[in-house]
Amino acid sequence: METVEQGDPQKIKKAKSEQENKTLRQARITAIVFALLTTMAFISLVYAYVQKGIAEESNQEAIKQTELARAATAQLRQCQEEAARQMKIAERNALEAQRQQKLAEEQMQRMGTHKQLQQKIKK
What we know:
The protein is mainly α. 93% of the residues lie in helices and 0% in strands. The protein has one helix at 9-122.
């Protein structure tokens, strides 16, 4: 900036005007920067709030799925216990069936022997 002579009022007025315009421009730029930063902060705040809501929904869904998994695990355990119980019953029934079959075979043999004796007696 050129030096202004102390005696020229127009040049002093012009220099003051230029300085005021420069100060106003800087103030406008500063205001725009702060407005942009405030807008970005507000957008970030809204985004964070939305993400928090999504995270809470996901958390609730995870809790619900965990409870369902626990219930399914308990039901599976009950089914396994019932299957083991039924397997023991089936094994006992199989053993009983084998025992009954042996008894039947023994009776058939006795009856066959009995018939042979009766036939011999009749002769």
